Amino acid sequence: MTMTRTTPPRPVDIAAVFPELAPLARTTTRLHPRPGNPTSWESSVGGPLLWPIDDPWPYCEEPHFHGESLKTLADVRLQRDMLTAAWKRPRQPGVNLLTPEEDAIIKRIQAGHSWTDEPIAMIPVAQLYARDIPDLHPPPGCDLLQVLWCPFGHDDENLPRVKLVWRSSSIVTSLLSNPPQPVAVESEDYVPEPCVVHPEQIIEYPALSDLDEALREQIKAWQEREKPIADVGSFAYSFGLSVAPGWKVGGWTSFSFRDAEPAICSCGTQMQPLLRIDSTEWDGGSGSWIPIEDQALNRNPDTSYTRPWEPVMVTIGRSYTMQIYTCPASVDHPPVAWMQ
Fold first, then answer.
1. What's the pLDDT band for 322 if we cut at 50, 70, 90?
2. For residues 64 and 117, what is the distance between their CA atoms, to the nearest angstrom?
3. Residue 336 pLDDT greater than 80, yes or no
4. How far apart are CA 89 and CA 98, in angstroms?
5. 3 state DSSP class of 339
6. Cα dihedral across residues 171, 174, 177, 181: positive or negative
7. Which residues, including other chains, have CB under 8 Å from residue 107's CB and lie 6 or more apart?
8. What is the C-alpha to C-alpha distance for residues 256 and 321, in angstroms, rounded to an integer?
9. What whole-number distance in Å separates Cα of residue 216 and Cα of residue 221?
10. What is the rounded CA–CA span in Å between residue 93 and residue 100?
11. How far apart are CA 37 and CA 254, in angstroms?
12. The organism sits in which domain of life (predicted)?
């Protein structure tokens, strides 16, 4: 985490316009994941975990869909590496991107393979140290959150099954150097690219759906009066003034295709947002959130396989988000993960 990422000031101090929002402000920590080579002793997305050698690795033992395009984790990594290298090579117009040998390998990977029905080893999604993440509030005695998931879709929303592990990093001595690999992954969209993170704490306000009706209507009327025609997204409360896009810890949540509703634990307690996993760091409607350090790259993206707004290469549904909620009553209560 040698570089920083800085969110530009909001186009409008919305709490000054609507003082009713001030007591609803929450902090969130934007992770700003970017491709890199994190170690087990660093916060990361998709990087190696500080996993004790004597701690059993988690497996998903639920049923899994046997599609025709299953890949191994090694296949996904190889395909990405080959395409990344190919895009960097200079070539004349009309010349194929891939060599014949590379093309044959890619076609073999895309054809997929069959596999026997067995438990699937979960893969690392995020590792977050409390020292780096101001909005991570670990239980007593812990300073580290590890997030893993099964790289297959489950239930009606076809989301990966999530596993959360809280631990104390100070008591980890002997590390598991070669974690088990899943025999297959359903989709490369569920394989995070190893990324270093650049945590930044900012202020958020509730999404429109979380406001009472009177305030919601006042804000809608205000933004219709005030938004500049040339910069609609920045002045739209939902896109530029309330909930930040991208991977983040804590803060407020937003809903897109599903109705807004609170997440309720089986114990009856309202759950709190823990981690948001986003398909993109920004999109056409959330450009005002692009970190200052990334704005030139966004204006002039090079012709590469990866794009600056998709550093993790994870896609949730049709470019939605996955919000993980936890119960404040007990970390032993299972988390809830929604696509929203």
1. very high
2. 8
3. yes
4. 10
5. strand
6. negative
7. none
8. 9
9. 9
10. 17
11. 31
12. Bacteria
What's the CA dihedral at 102, 120, 149, 34 to 10 degrees? -20
Q: For residue range 178-204, what is the model confidence (pLDDT) as tens digits?
A: 999 999 999 899 999 999 999 999 999
By the 8 A CB rule, do 251 and 27 touch? yes
Long-range pairs of 232-236 with CB within 8 A, sequence gap ≥ 24 = 233/284, 233/285, 233/286, 233/287, 233/288, 234/11, 234/287, 234/288, 235/11, 235/12, 236/285
Residue 49 CA to residue 39 CA, distance in Å, equals 8
What is the reported pLDDT for 114?
Answer: 75
What is the pLDDT confidence band of residue 290, given thresholds at 50, 70 and 90?
very high
The domains of the chain, with CATH numbers, are 14-71+112-339 (2.30.320)
Residue with tokens 């895009």: 87
Residue 255's identity, in one-letter code, is: F
Distance from chain centroid for Cα 101:
34
DSSP assignment string, 166-214: EE-GGG--SB-SS----S-BS-GGGSPPPEE---EEEEE---GGGS-HH
The DSSP bridge partners found for residue 323 are 276, 338
Tell me the pLDDT tens digit for each residue of 85-126: 999 888 888 889 999 999 999 999 988 887 767 899 999 999
Torsion of CA 106, 313, 291, 37, to 10 degrees: -80
Q: What is the distance between the alpha carbons of residues 241 and 286, in angstroms, rounded to a whole number?
A: 10
User: Are the C-beta atoms of 160 and 190 separated by less than 8 Å?
Assistant: yes
Q: In this model, does residue 147 exceed pLDDT 50?
A: yes
Candidates 35, 30, 36, 14; CA nearest to 289 is 30
